[in-house]
Amino acid sequence: MPALVLLGAQWGDEGKGKATDLLGGSVDYVVRYQGGNNAGHTVVVGDQKYALHLLPSGILSPGCTPVIGNGVVVDPAVLLSELSGLNERGVDTSKLLISGNAHLITPYNITVDKVTERFLGKRKIGTTGRGIGPTYADKINRTGIRVQDLFDESILHQKVEAALDVKNQVLAKLYNHRAIAAEQVVEEMLGYADQLRGFVADTTLLLNNAIDDGKVVLFEGGQGTLLDVDHGTYPFVTSSNPTAGGACTGAGVGPTKINRVIGILKAYTTRVGAGPFPTELFDKDGEALRTIGGERGVTTGRDRRCGWFDAVIARYATRVNGLTDFFLTKLDVLTGWEQIPVCVAYEIDGKRVEELPYSQSDFHHAKPIYEMLPGWSEDITKAKTFSDLPKNAQAYVKALEEMSGAPISAIGVGPGRDETIEINSFLS
Ligand code: GDP
Ligand code: IMO
Ligand code: MG
After folding, report:
1. What would the pLDDT profile of 119-138 be if each residue is shown by its tens digit?
2. What is the best residue among 329, 379, 384, 396 to mutate for testing ligand 1's pocket, by most ligand atoms within 8 Å of CB?
3. Alpha carbon distance 373, 392 (integer Å)
4. pLDDT tens across 272-310, in order?
5. Is the domain of 228 the same as that of 337?
6. What separation in Å is there between the alpha carbon of 15 and the centre of ligand 1?
7. Binding residues for GTP, per the UniProt record (predicted)?
8. Are 241 and 353 within one domain?
9. Residue 196 and which of 214, 338, 347, 387 are 20 to 30 A apart at CA?
10. b/e string for 169-179 if b means 16 or more Cβ within 10 A?
11. Is 265 left (phi over 0), alpha (psi -120 to 50) or beta?
Protein backbone atom coordinates (compact mmCIF):
# COMPACT_ATOMS: atom_id res chain seq x y z
CA MET A 1 0.00 0.00 0.00
CA PRO A 2 1.38 3.38 -0.91
CA ALA A 3 2.88 6.33 0.92
CA LEU A 4 2.07 9.38 -1.17
CA VAL A 5 3.18 12.98 -1.19
CA LEU A 6 0.68 15.54 -2.47
CA LEU A 7 2.11 19.01 -3.08
CA GLY A 8 1.60 22.25 -4.94
CA ALA A 9 3.29 22.41 -8.35
CA GLN A 10 3.04 26.22 -8.73
CA TRP A 11 2.89 29.12 -6.23
CA GLY A 12 0.33 27.59 -3.87
CA ASP A 13 -3.49 27.58 -3.86
CA GLU A 14 -3.62 24.91 -6.56
CA GLY A 15 -6.41 23.01 -4.79
CA LYS A 16 -4.36 20.80 -2.46
CA GLY A 17 -7.06 20.84 0.22
CA LYS A 18 -9.65 19.44 -2.14
CA ALA A 19 -7.27 16.80 -3.50
CA THR A 20 -6.23 15.66 -0.01
CA ASP A 21 -9.80 15.55 1.18
CA LEU A 22 -10.81 13.54 -1.87
CA LEU A 23 -8.25 10.84 -1.07
CA GLY A 24 -8.88 11.13 2.68
CA GLY A 25 -11.63 8.50 2.68
CA SER A 26 -9.18 5.81 1.51
CA VAL A 27 -6.20 6.98 3.55
CA ASP A 28 -5.20 6.00 7.10
CA TYR A 29 -2.99 9.03 7.93
CA VAL A 30 -2.79 12.54 6.45
CA VAL A 31 0.37 14.35 7.51
CA ARG A 32 1.31 18.04 7.23
CA TYR A 33 5.12 18.17 6.94
CA GLN A 34 6.00 21.89 6.65
CA GLY A 35 4.61 25.39 6.78
CA GLY A 36 2.05 26.51 9.31
CA ASN A 37 -1.08 28.61 9.32
CA ASN A 38 0.18 30.57 6.32
CA ALA A 39 -1.63 27.84 4.35
CA GLY A 40 -5.28 28.22 3.42
CA HIS A 41 -6.82 24.98 2.17
CA THR A 42 -10.45 25.01 1.11
CA VAL A 43 -12.52 21.85 1.21
CA VAL A 44 -16.10 21.74 -0.02
CA VAL A 45 -18.20 18.80 1.19
CA GLY A 46 -21.79 18.96 -0.04
CA ASP A 47 -23.06 22.41 0.93
CA GLN A 48 -20.42 22.81 3.65
CA LYS A 49 -17.23 24.79 3.03
CA TYR A 50 -14.22 24.46 5.33
CA ALA A 51 -11.11 26.68 5.36
CA LEU A 52 -8.21 24.88 7.03
CA HIS A 53 -4.95 26.61 7.85
CA LEU A 54 -2.90 24.38 10.09
CA LEU A 55 -4.81 21.13 10.34
CA PRO A 56 -4.30 18.50 7.63
CA SER A 57 -7.26 18.37 5.24
CA GLY A 58 -7.71 14.67 6.12
CA ILE A 59 -9.28 15.81 9.40
CA LEU A 60 -12.63 15.90 7.59
CA SER A 61 -12.50 12.15 6.81
CA PRO A 62 -13.69 10.18 9.84
CA GLY A 63 -11.46 7.10 9.29
CA CYS A 64 -8.30 9.11 8.82
CA THR A 65 -5.76 10.11 11.49
CA PRO A 66 -4.47 13.66 10.96
CA VAL A 67 -0.84 14.28 11.91
CA ILE A 68 1.16 17.50 12.32
CA GLY A 69 4.76 16.51 11.66
CA ASN A 70 8.01 17.84 13.14
CA GLY A 71 8.60 20.11 10.12
CA VAL A 72 5.48 22.19 10.74
CA VAL A 73 5.46 25.42 12.75
CA VAL A 74 2.50 25.52 15.13
CA ASP A 75 0.72 28.59 16.44
CA PRO A 76 -1.02 27.05 19.47
CA ALA A 77 -3.74 29.71 19.62
CA VAL A 78 -4.63 29.13 15.95
CA LEU A 79 -4.53 25.37 16.40
CA LEU A 80 -6.95 25.44 19.33
CA SER A 81 -9.33 27.85 17.62
CA GLU A 82 -9.30 25.78 14.42
CA LEU A 83 -10.05 22.64 16.46
CA SER A 84 -12.91 24.25 18.36
CA GLY A 85 -14.31 25.74 15.13
CA LEU A 86 -14.46 22.24 13.63
CA ASN A 87 -15.87 20.70 16.82
CA GLU A 88 -18.68 23.26 16.76
CA ARG A 89 -19.51 22.06 13.24
CA GLY A 90 -19.63 18.45 14.42
CA VAL A 91 -16.21 17.33 13.13
CA ASP A 92 -14.44 14.88 15.44
CA THR A 93 -10.85 16.06 15.88
CA SER A 94 -9.87 13.75 18.74
CA LYS A 95 -7.57 11.61 16.58
CA LEU A 96 -5.16 14.48 15.84
CA LEU A 97 -1.49 13.79 16.60
CA ILE A 98 1.24 16.42 16.90
CA SER A 99 4.99 15.89 16.87
CA GLY A 100 6.68 17.05 20.08
CA ASN A 101 9.54 18.26 17.87
CA ALA A 102 7.42 20.70 15.87
CA HIS A 103 8.36 24.31 16.57
CA LEU A 104 5.95 26.79 18.12
CA ILE A 105 5.13 30.17 16.62
CA THR A 106 5.45 32.54 19.59
CA PRO A 107 3.84 35.99 19.84
CA TYR A 108 7.28 37.59 19.33
CA ASN A 109 7.78 35.66 16.07
CA ILE A 110 4.57 37.23 14.76
CA THR A 111 5.73 40.68 15.86
CA VAL A 112 9.09 40.21 14.14
CA ASP A 113 7.36 39.07 10.91
CA LYS A 114 5.20 42.22 10.85
CA VAL A 115 7.87 44.75 11.76
CA THR A 116 10.36 43.25 9.29
CA GLU A 117 7.86 43.56 6.45
CA ARG A 118 7.09 47.14 7.45
CA PHE A 119 10.81 47.90 7.56
CA LEU A 120 11.35 46.44 4.07
CA GLY A 121 8.73 48.81 2.63
CA LYS A 122 8.66 48.49 -1.17
CA ARG A 123 11.03 45.50 -0.99
CA LYS A 124 8.69 43.48 1.24
CA ILE A 125 7.96 39.80 0.53
CA GLY A 126 4.23 40.17 1.15
CA THR A 127 4.23 37.47 3.84
CA THR A 128 1.05 36.29 5.49
CA GLY A 129 2.21 37.96 8.72
CA ARG A 130 1.75 34.75 10.68
CA GLY A 131 5.30 34.58 12.06
CA ILE A 132 6.35 31.76 9.74
CA GLY A 133 9.77 33.06 8.59
CA PRO A 134 10.97 34.23 12.04
CA THR A 135 9.93 30.90 13.61
CA TYR A 136 11.91 28.89 11.05
CA ALA A 137 14.80 31.34 11.50
CA ASP A 138 14.78 30.60 15.25
CA LYS A 139 14.70 26.88 14.49
CA ILE A 140 17.78 27.08 12.28
CA ASN A 141 19.41 29.48 14.73
CA ARG A 142 18.81 26.92 17.51
CA THR A 143 16.81 29.38 19.58
CA GLY A 144 13.36 27.96 18.76
CA ILE A 145 10.68 26.76 21.16
CA ARG A 146 9.30 23.29 20.50
CA VAL A 147 5.94 21.74 21.37
CA GLN A 148 7.61 19.52 23.99
CA ASP A 149 8.98 22.62 25.77
CA LEU A 150 5.42 23.43 26.86
CA PHE A 151 5.62 20.54 29.29
CA ASP A 152 8.72 21.70 31.17
CA GLU A 153 8.11 25.10 32.69
CA SER A 154 11.69 25.74 33.68
CA ILE A 155 13.08 24.91 30.22
CA LEU A 156 10.37 26.97 28.55
CA HIS A 157 11.30 29.90 30.74
CA GLN A 158 15.02 29.62 29.96
CA LYS A 159 14.44 29.30 26.22
CA VAL A 160 12.00 32.18 25.91
CA GLU A 161 14.29 34.41 27.96
CA ALA A 162 17.32 33.49 25.84
CA ALA A 163 15.40 34.18 22.62
CA LEU A 164 14.06 37.51 23.86
CA ASP A 165 17.44 38.70 25.17
CA VAL A 166 18.55 39.17 21.59
CA LYS A 167 15.21 39.91 19.97
CA ASN A 168 14.30 42.71 22.34
CA GLN A 169 17.56 44.47 21.47
CA VAL A 170 16.74 44.23 17.79
CA LEU A 171 13.09 45.21 18.27
CA ALA A 172 13.97 48.27 20.32
CA LYS A 173 17.11 49.49 18.54
CA LEU A 174 16.35 48.62 14.94
CA TYR A 175 12.58 48.63 14.69
CA ASN A 176 11.74 51.13 17.40
CA HIS A 177 9.33 48.62 18.93
CA ARG A 178 8.74 48.17 22.65
CA ALA A 179 10.36 45.16 24.37
CA ILE A 180 8.31 41.99 24.88
CA ALA A 181 8.18 40.59 28.44
CA ALA A 182 9.37 36.97 28.68
CA GLU A 183 7.10 36.38 31.68
CA GLN A 184 4.00 37.24 29.67
CA VAL A 185 5.00 34.98 26.75
CA VAL A 186 5.71 32.05 29.08
CA GLU A 187 2.39 32.49 30.84
CA GLU A 188 0.51 32.54 27.55
CA MET A 189 2.34 29.48 26.23
CA LEU A 190 1.82 27.52 29.46
CA GLY A 191 -1.89 28.23 29.15
CA TYR A 192 -1.91 26.00 26.04
CA ALA A 193 0.03 23.10 27.57
CA ASP A 194 -2.81 21.13 29.09
CA GLN A 195 -5.02 21.52 26.06
CA LEU A 196 -2.32 20.19 23.73
CA ARG A 197 -0.74 17.47 25.89
CA GLY A 198 -3.14 14.72 24.79
CA PHE A 199 -2.33 15.23 21.09
CA VAL A 200 1.46 14.99 21.35
CA ALA A 201 3.05 11.76 20.12
CA ASP A 202 6.23 10.26 18.64
CA THR A 203 4.87 10.78 15.14
CA THR A 204 8.01 9.58 13.35
CA LEU A 205 7.84 6.18 15.03
CA LEU A 206 4.14 5.95 14.46
CA LEU A 207 4.27 6.85 10.76
CA ASN A 208 7.14 4.49 9.99
CA ASN A 209 5.30 1.66 11.75
CA ALA A 210 2.12 2.53 9.86
CA ILE A 211 3.91 2.36 6.50
CA ASP A 212 5.59 -0.93 7.47
CA ASP A 213 2.16 -2.31 8.42
CA GLY A 214 0.82 -1.51 4.94
CA LYS A 215 -1.28 1.48 5.97
CA VAL A 216 -1.88 4.29 3.45
CA VAL A 217 -0.11 7.50 4.45
CA LEU A 218 -0.60 10.77 2.60
CA PHE A 219 1.82 13.66 3.14
CA GLU A 220 0.05 16.97 2.42
CA GLY A 221 2.22 19.92 1.41
CA GLY A 222 1.42 23.51 2.22
CA GLN A 223 2.32 26.28 -0.28
CA GLY A 224 3.90 25.21 -3.59
CA THR A 225 7.12 24.29 -5.40
CA LEU A 226 7.91 27.87 -6.48
CA LEU A 227 7.54 29.06 -2.88
CA ASP A 228 10.14 26.54 -1.65
CA VAL A 229 13.02 28.22 0.19
CA ASP A 230 15.59 26.20 -1.83
CA HIS A 231 13.87 25.64 -5.16
CA GLY A 232 11.47 28.56 -5.40
CA THR A 233 11.74 32.17 -6.54
CA TYR A 234 14.01 33.18 -3.64
CA PRO A 235 13.74 35.53 -1.76
CA PHE A 236 10.03 35.71 -2.67
CA VAL A 237 9.33 32.37 -1.04
CA THR A 238 8.14 30.89 2.21
CA SER A 239 10.70 29.69 4.77
CA SER A 240 10.28 25.92 4.43
CA ASN A 241 10.49 23.08 1.89
CA PRO A 242 7.11 22.25 0.35
CA THR A 243 8.95 20.18 -2.30
CA ALA A 244 8.88 16.38 -2.02
CA GLY A 245 12.11 16.04 -0.02
CA GLY A 246 10.50 18.17 2.69
CA ALA A 247 8.04 15.36 3.38
CA CYS A 248 10.95 13.14 4.47
CA THR A 249 12.62 15.65 6.79
CA GLY A 250 9.34 17.14 7.95
CA ALA A 251 7.83 13.82 8.98
CA GLY A 252 10.88 11.66 9.73
CA VAL A 253 10.29 9.15 6.93
CA GLY A 254 13.01 7.99 4.54
CA PRO A 255 12.75 8.59 0.77
CA THR A 256 12.72 4.82 0.13
CA LYS A 257 9.31 4.69 1.82
CA ILE A 258 7.60 7.09 -0.61
CA ASN A 259 5.89 5.46 -3.59
CA ARG A 260 4.17 8.33 -5.32
CA VAL A 261 4.49 12.10 -5.57
CA ILE A 262 1.44 13.95 -6.89
CA GLY A 263 1.74 17.54 -8.08
CA ILE A 264 -1.42 19.63 -7.82
CA LEU A 265 -1.51 21.84 -10.86
CA LYS A 266 -4.00 24.59 -11.63
CA ALA A 267 -5.12 24.79 -15.28
CA TYR A 268 -3.84 28.41 -15.17
CA THR A 269 -1.47 30.13 -12.72
CA THR A 270 -1.90 32.27 -9.60
CA ARG A 271 0.39 33.82 -7.02
CA VAL A 272 -0.13 35.82 -3.79
CA GLY A 273 2.46 38.26 -2.47
CA ALA A 274 5.46 39.77 -4.26
CA GLY A 275 7.91 38.20 -6.72
CA PRO A 276 8.34 37.36 -10.41
CA PHE A 277 5.48 35.77 -12.37
CA PRO A 278 6.13 35.59 -16.15
CA THR A 279 2.58 34.81 -17.33
CA GLU A 280 0.85 37.34 -15.06
CA LEU A 281 -2.04 39.18 -16.74
CA PHE A 282 -2.97 42.79 -16.08
CA ASP A 283 -5.91 42.88 -18.49
CA LYS A 284 -9.52 41.72 -18.60
CA ASP A 285 -8.46 38.08 -18.99
CA GLY A 286 -6.60 38.28 -15.65
CA GLU A 287 -9.65 39.88 -14.06
CA ALA A 288 -11.89 37.17 -15.55
CA LEU A 289 -9.68 34.37 -14.19
CA ARG A 290 -9.75 36.03 -10.75
CA THR A 291 -13.53 36.44 -10.78
CA ILE A 292 -14.52 33.11 -12.32
CA GLY A 293 -11.86 31.20 -10.34
CA GLY A 294 -12.70 32.95 -7.05
CA GLU A 295 -9.02 33.80 -6.70
CA ARG A 296 -8.96 35.52 -3.34
CA GLY A 297 -6.63 34.35 -0.54
CA VAL A 298 -8.15 32.03 2.06
CA THR A 299 -5.69 33.21 4.72
CA THR A 300 -5.22 36.93 4.12
CA GLY A 301 -8.15 37.77 1.85
CA ARG A 302 -5.77 39.34 -0.69
CA ASP A 303 -6.64 39.15 -4.39
CA ARG A 304 -4.46 36.55 -6.12
CA ARG A 305 -2.41 37.59 -9.12
CA CYS A 306 -3.59 35.56 -12.13
CA GLY A 307 -2.03 34.42 -15.41
CA TRP A 308 -2.06 31.72 -18.08
CA PHE A 309 -0.70 28.22 -17.60
CA ASP A 310 3.09 28.06 -17.55
CA ALA A 311 4.50 24.74 -18.79
CA VAL A 312 8.07 25.74 -17.92
CA ILE A 313 7.08 25.85 -14.27
CA ALA A 314 5.16 22.58 -14.49
CA ARG A 315 8.22 20.85 -16.03
CA TYR A 316 10.38 22.29 -13.27
CA ALA A 317 7.97 20.95 -10.63
CA THR A 318 8.17 17.51 -12.24
CA ARG A 319 11.96 17.67 -12.05
CA VAL A 320 12.58 18.95 -8.51
CA ASN A 321 9.85 16.80 -6.96
CA GLY A 322 10.23 13.64 -9.04
CA LEU A 323 6.50 13.83 -9.74
CA THR A 324 4.79 10.59 -10.71
CA ASP A 325 1.39 12.21 -11.42
CA PHE A 326 -0.42 15.49 -11.76
CA PHE A 327 -3.87 16.38 -10.43
CA LEU A 328 -5.06 19.15 -12.75
CA THR A 329 -7.52 21.47 -10.98
CA LYS A 330 -9.97 24.20 -12.00
CA LEU A 331 -10.28 23.18 -15.64
CA ASP A 332 -13.91 24.40 -15.45
CA VAL A 333 -12.69 27.98 -14.88
CA LEU A 334 -11.33 28.06 -18.45
CA THR A 335 -14.71 27.32 -20.04
CA GLY A 336 -15.79 30.10 -22.38
CA TRP A 337 -12.48 31.30 -23.85
CA GLU A 338 -12.31 30.93 -27.62
CA GLN A 339 -8.57 30.37 -27.49
CA ILE A 340 -6.41 29.69 -24.45
CA PRO A 341 -2.77 30.79 -24.45
CA VAL A 342 -0.29 28.40 -22.81
CA CYS A 343 3.30 29.42 -22.07
CA VAL A 344 5.57 26.76 -23.60
CA ALA A 345 8.97 28.46 -23.16
CA TYR A 346 10.49 31.86 -22.25
CA GLU A 347 12.30 34.44 -24.25
CA ILE A 348 15.23 35.78 -22.26
CA ASP A 349 17.52 38.38 -23.84
CA GLY A 350 16.33 37.36 -27.31
CA LYS A 351 16.91 33.62 -26.75
CA ARG A 352 14.33 30.84 -26.42
CA VAL A 353 14.67 29.04 -23.06
CA GLU A 354 12.81 25.78 -22.38
CA GLU A 355 13.75 25.20 -18.71
CA LEU A 356 13.38 27.44 -15.66
CA PRO A 357 16.52 29.57 -15.54
CA TYR A 358 18.58 29.19 -12.36
CA SER A 359 19.57 32.88 -12.43
CA GLN A 360 17.06 35.13 -10.67
CA SER A 361 17.80 38.03 -13.03
CA ASP A 362 17.05 35.84 -16.04
CA PHE A 363 13.78 34.74 -14.47
CA HIS A 364 12.83 38.35 -13.75
CA HIS A 365 13.37 39.15 -17.45
CA ALA A 366 11.64 36.04 -18.82
CA LYS A 367 8.93 36.80 -21.36
CA PRO A 368 6.41 34.04 -22.01
CA ILE A 369 6.25 32.43 -25.45
CA TYR A 370 2.64 31.38 -25.97
CA GLU A 371 1.01 28.66 -28.01
CA MET A 372 -2.73 29.13 -28.60
CA LEU A 373 -4.96 26.17 -27.86
CA PRO A 374 -8.62 26.08 -28.97
CA GLY A 375 -11.12 26.62 -26.14
CA TRP A 376 -14.57 25.16 -25.43
CA SER A 377 -17.90 26.64 -24.36
CA GLU A 378 -19.78 23.61 -22.97
CA ASP A 379 -20.34 23.33 -19.20
CA ILE A 380 -17.91 20.66 -17.96
CA THR A 381 -18.78 20.67 -14.25
CA LYS A 382 -20.90 17.51 -14.57
CA ALA A 383 -18.24 15.52 -16.47
CA LYS A 384 -17.43 12.24 -14.72
CA THR A 385 -15.05 10.64 -17.21
CA PHE A 386 -12.39 12.01 -19.54
CA SER A 387 -14.54 11.23 -22.57
CA ASP A 388 -17.38 13.38 -21.12
CA LEU A 389 -15.17 16.42 -21.73
CA PRO A 390 -15.54 18.37 -25.01
CA LYS A 391 -12.86 17.46 -27.56
CA ASN A 392 -11.02 20.76 -27.13
CA ALA A 393 -10.91 20.38 -23.34
CA GLN A 394 -9.51 16.86 -23.81
CA ALA A 395 -6.89 18.27 -26.18
CA TYR A 396 -6.00 21.03 -23.67
CA VAL A 397 -5.42 18.42 -20.93
CA LYS A 398 -3.37 16.21 -23.25
CA ALA A 399 -1.25 19.16 -24.39
CA LEU A 400 -0.53 20.18 -20.78
CA GLU A 401 0.37 16.59 -19.93
CA GLU A 402 2.77 16.37 -22.87
CA MET A 403 4.46 19.67 -21.92
CA SER A 404 4.62 19.04 -18.18
CA GLY A 405 6.38 15.68 -18.10
CA ALA A 406 4.09 13.52 -15.94
CA PRO A 407 0.67 11.91 -16.48
CA ILE A 408 -2.43 13.85 -15.46
CA SER A 409 -4.24 11.28 -13.32
CA ALA A 410 -7.17 13.38 -12.12
CA ILE A 411 -8.97 16.53 -13.25
CA GLY A 412 -10.95 18.97 -11.09
CA VAL A 413 -14.07 20.37 -12.77
CA GLY A 414 -15.52 22.13 -9.71
CA PRO A 415 -14.75 22.79 -6.04
CA GLY A 416 -16.90 19.93 -4.64
CA ARG A 417 -15.51 16.58 -3.50
CA ASP A 418 -17.31 14.76 -6.33
CA GLU A 419 -16.49 17.27 -9.07
CA THR A 420 -13.46 15.28 -10.15
CA ILE A 421 -12.59 13.09 -13.09
CA GLU A 422 -10.39 10.21 -11.98
CA ILE A 423 -8.21 8.83 -14.76
CA ASN A 424 -5.69 6.63 -12.88
CA SER A 425 -6.12 5.67 -9.24
CA PHE A 426 -3.53 7.26 -6.94
CA LEU A 427 -3.82 4.37 -4.52
CA SER A 428 -2.88 1.40 -6.70
P1 GDP B 1 -4.89 25.04 -1.63
O2 GDP B 1 -4.23 26.09 -0.79
O3 GDP B 1 -3.95 24.42 -2.61
O4 GDP B 1 -5.62 24.00 -0.81
O5 GDP B 1 -6.00 25.80 -2.49
P6 GDP B 1 -7.03 26.94 -1.98
O7 GDP B 1 -8.09 26.27 -1.17
O8 GDP B 1 -6.30 28.07 -1.37
O9 GDP B 1 -7.57 27.47 -3.36
C10 GDP B 1 -8.17 26.62 -4.27
C11 GDP B 1 -9.63 27.08 -4.52
O12 GDP B 1 -10.12 26.45 -5.65
C13 GDP B 1 -10.59 26.73 -3.39
O14 GDP B 1 -11.54 27.73 -3.30
C15 GDP B 1 -11.22 25.42 -3.86
O16 GDP B 1 -12.52 25.20 -3.32
C17 GDP B 1 -11.28 25.66 -5.34
N18 GDP B 1 -11.16 24.46 -6.18
C19 GDP B 1 -10.37 23.35 -6.02
N20 GDP B 1 -10.47 22.55 -7.09
C21 GDP B 1 -11.33 23.15 -7.94
C22 GDP B 1 -11.81 22.84 -9.27
O23 GDP B 1 -11.45 21.84 -9.87
N24 GDP B 1 -12.67 23.75 -9.84
C25 GDP B 1 -13.06 24.90 -9.20
N26 GDP B 1 -13.90 25.72 -9.83
N27 GDP B 1 -12.63 25.22 -7.98
C28 GDP B 1 -11.77 24.36 -7.38
P1 IMO C 1 -1.36 27.35 0.49
O2 IMO C 1 -0.98 26.16 1.34
C3 IMO C 1 -0.13 30.99 -1.55
C4 IMO C 1 3.20 33.23 0.23
C5 IMO C 1 2.89 34.58 0.84
C6 IMO C 1 4.21 35.30 0.57
C7 IMO C 1 5.23 34.19 0.78
C8 IMO C 1 5.90 34.21 2.15
O9 IMO C 1 -2.74 27.84 0.75
O10 IMO C 1 -1.06 27.07 -0.94
P11 IMO C 1 5.03 33.48 4.56
O12 IMO C 1 3.92 34.03 5.41
O13 IMO C 1 4.90 32.03 4.26
O14 IMO C 1 6.40 33.82 5.10
O15 IMO C 1 4.91 34.31 3.17
O16 IMO C 1 4.55 32.96 0.59
N17 IMO C 1 2.37 32.11 0.77
C18 IMO C 1 1.38 31.52 0.08
N19 IMO C 1 0.86 31.81 -1.13
N20 IMO C 1 -0.60 29.95 -0.84
C21 IMO C 1 -0.08 29.63 0.37
O22 IMO C 1 -0.41 28.53 1.05
C23 IMO C 1 0.95 30.46 0.91
N24 IMO C 1 1.66 30.46 2.06
C25 IMO C 1 2.54 31.47 1.95
O26 IMO C 1 1.80 35.20 0.20
O27 IMO C 1 4.26 35.69 -0.78
MG1 MG D 1 -4.45 28.08 -0.27
Report:
1. 999 999 999 999 999 999 99
2. 329
3. 8
4. 999 999 999 999 999 999 999 999 988 888 999 999 999
5. yes
6. 4
7. 12-18, 40-42, 304, 330-332, 412-414
8. yes
9. 214
10. eebeeeeebee
11. beta
